[in-house]
Model the fold of this input.
Amino acid sequence: MAQENVDFPIPGKVLSVNVSQGSGVKEGDVICMLESMKMENPILAPCSGTVTKIELSSGQVVEAGALVCIIEY
Done:
């Protein structure tokens, strides 16, 4: 199976995490919400599949390019 690494495009603070390891996602589903520059930015699934790795928690501060999750499809 192929894998897709999902990275944060901008730095910010994780407001909520909507999926967990083993969750099925569809293309366009919101993986998490990121607050950056006082704006809420949804981080979307780029493809449909199963989340095989996610290590996020609400309140966590992240840098641009940090791994959001890995989706296997």
